[in-house]
Design goal:
Chain lengths: 300, 344
């Protein structure tokens, strides 16, 4: 895609780049509200990234690739949930295990199937881009909202659906109830573990999609392609104050930071490693500022 | 006693299942499974070189494992081990490169002290933010560490890169800084003794000192400790500092004992594996020693299998993740505990 054809290439790019953060954070919001620190977002995303591009390559169909890639991530989430909830493992540690498993498994399979542990390229179609006329007519903003690939728009739909599910359905109420006090949910005759399970599976679904966005855009798999995006998504949940709309804003900030560093790489003479460190530094600064703000607000 | 029995039996079952999965993986992936299995399990013991290198690889894991054990025992989370090790290694290397004329016993301790301080500051920051404003130390330590990794990469491949070698690495440190090898031809050196000493020292710190007692109390129940008159905010920062210092040490020792140059990304995995080591050891500082050797054994086995057969090294990561899953699965242990109790 020729980015120069848009009025604000920096912002337009940021909206594309934020999609994996947004998707993973939206799924992670469910687990967070259900009272679990889900650090497996990274690993689940990696599983989705690998299997979606591999299946797309094998079947020659993007849709099948996405479907099977997401299914693989949900399967991995089911393993994570089973160990955490049924075998009563510490969620934090089983999350680390999921990340380690994803990293090892994808490299072993890439080596086994394609004989190399580097970049694996696939002959697949590009993700179709959409230009929605209704959006295009919005002045200024419209230009930023058109011409993205189809998964970007899908991610917006998912955020809206997630917000509706969380705030407007009994299911969402029970998820939030589980996080606030599992005993309360039990006293209502419901099984909190079932809602935690559902939350983890939802995070597997959205992380699978997030991973698919990464690899299908490149038509290639690179070992550990997620490179910390799952962690940033986790931070976006906190930064977004655990609300869907907050997550949209937080994800955009991270998308913008990455977009800025991509542009700076070409324009300004800053070493690439500093630019790569930049999103992490911004994130930790944002976290600290946010906690200072909360700290003093709680006092007043 | 029943708990100890259940714990040990649970550990054995965990390891048994993991080994079984390793065998299944190899049978699925390898065209010559018997050779692969042989090298995976027996490879590290077939000669002095492999065996010594396996023990040598355990040394940094002892330090990172101890670092995690101290933090976890105090219910503080340090997820920044990777960056602390890597940055500690870089700072130690820089000091030794800056003092080419120094005697080994002057510059060496200076370099180690600097590595230790680097790790302590990096982790201590997260502890400080947590104490001051309640910033989640788990996530902040991870983020700081990741940013630091990129910055260390910049120095190793940029200003400090040695153009005369083909690697992305700094110049080599002076010969006087090399630790004495104790098991040639392998790379095992006297830092093995440091690792054992560190294990004993941390054990002593945690179980026989005032600080250790208060750290453990805060780990068990922070609110109760506050009620009991312990200054709990201190014990958010102190465990992080000790944890970071041990991670920094791991980096410095790896340079002086094994690598002698800071190669790009050389220490990757030492931090994460430290968490696994601490878990296998149930956060017991003395248990960290055998747990580190066990972890190094898995890696050495996978490496031997890769060299002599047709599988890739990362199968070790899969086996390690299974151990991770099972080691924390409380249901297995409580099941064993119940069975033990139901017997007369």
């Amino acid at each position: 895609m020729n980015e120069q054809s848009f009025t604000f290439p920096l912002l337009h790019n940021a909206i594309g780049i934020m999609t994996p953060f947004l998707l993973a954070a939206t799924g992670g919001l469910f687990t967070e509200l259900a009272g679990m620190l889900n650090i497996a977002l990274e690993g689940l995303m990696l599983i989705g990234a690998f299997f979606s591009v591999v299946f797309a390559g094998l079947t020659g169909s993007l849709a099948l690739g996405i479907l099977l890639g997401v299914a693989s991530a949900v399967l991995a989430a089911a393993l994570f949930a089973g160990v955490s909830l049924n075998l009563k493992a510490n969620v934090f540690i089983s999350g680390l295990a999921t990340n380690l498993l994803a990293s090892g498994l994808t490299i072993v399979l890439a080596f086994q199937l394609f004989g190399n542990k580097g970049v694996v390229r696939f002959e697949i179609a590009k993700l179709p881009s959409l230009t929605i006329p209704a959006l295009a007519r919005i002045p200024v903003l419209g230009d930023l909202l058109i011409g993205h690939n189809i998964l970007v728009y899908f991610s917006w739909l998912i955020v809206v659906l997630a917000a509706l599910a969380i705030y407007r359905t009994p299911f969402g109420l029970r998820i939030r109830g589980t996080g606030l006090g599992a005993a309360t949910v039990t006293s209502l005759g419901l099984n909190p573990r079932r809602y935690q399970m559902a939350a983890i599976l939802i995070s597997g679904f959205t992380c699978g999609l997030a991973g698919a966005v990464l690899t299908l855009k490149l038509s290639a798999f690179v070992p550990n392609i997620t490179s910390g995006r799952g962690w940033i998504a986790l931070v976006a949940i906190y930064l977004g104050n655990k609300t869907p709309w907050g997550i949209v804003i937080a994800s955009f900030i991270f998308g913008f930071a990455e977009s800025l560093s991509n542009f700076a790489q070409g324009a300004i003479n800053i070493p690439a490693d500093f630019i790569l460190a930049f999103p992490y530094l911004i994130t930790v600064l944002a976290m600290i500022v946010y906690s200072i703000w909360r700290h003093y607000r709680a006092r007043v | 006693m029943g708990d100890l029995f259940a714990g040990t039996l649970g550990l054995l079952i965990t390891l048994g299942i993991s080994f079984l999965i390793a065998v299944i993986l190899i049978v699925l992936l390898s065209k010559q499974p018997l050779t692969t299995i042989y090298y995976f399990f027996v490879g590290p013991y077939t000669n002095k070189y492999y065996f010594g290198n396996m023990l040598n690889a355990a040394i940094p894991l002892v330090f990172t494992g101890l670092g995690i054990a101290v933090a976890f025992k105090s219910s503080v989370f340090n997820l920044g081990g990777e960056g602390q090790v890597y940055c500690g290694a870089l700072v130690a290397t820089v000091i030794m490169l800056a003092l080419p004329q120094s005697r080994g016993y002057v510059g060496g301790p200076a370099a180690l002290a600097a590595a230790l301080a680097t790790g302590a500051v990096l982790a201590g920051m997260s502890g400080f933010f947590k104490m001051k404003w309640g910033t989640d130390e788990l996530i902040s330590s991870f983020l700081i560490s990741t940013a630091v990794i990129f910055i260390v990469n910049y120095f190793i491949t940029g200003p400090l890169d040695d153009p005369s070698n083909s690697m992305l690495a700094t110049r080599a440190i002076g010969k006087q800084y090399h630790f004495l090898g104790i098991y040639p031809p392998s790379k095992l050196d006297i830092s093995a003794a440091f690792a054992v000493a560190a294990g004993i020292l941390v054990f002593f710190l945690m179980y026989y000192t005032h600080w250790g007692y208060e750290m453990r109390m805060c780990g068990l129940n922070r609110e109760f400790s506050r009620y009991g008159g312990i200054n709990v905010s201190t014990y958010v920062v102190l465990p992080m500092i000790i944890s970071g210092a041990l991670h920094g040490m791991a980096g410095g020792i790896a340079i002086m004992g094994t690598y002698h140059v800071a190669v790009k990304e050389f220490s990757f995995g030492m931090g994460w594996n430290g968490i696994a080591v601490a878990l296998i050891a149930k956060n017991n500082p003395l248990g960290v020693l055998p747990a580190a050797v066990f972890f190094a054994y898995l890696d050495a086995g996978a490496k031997a299998a890769m060299l002599h057969s047709d599988v890739t090294f990362e199968i070790a990561a899969i086996v390690q993740s299974i151990i991770f899953y099972l080691i924390t699965a409380q249901a297995i242990y409580s099941f064993l505990r119940r069975r033990k109790r139901s017997r007369p």
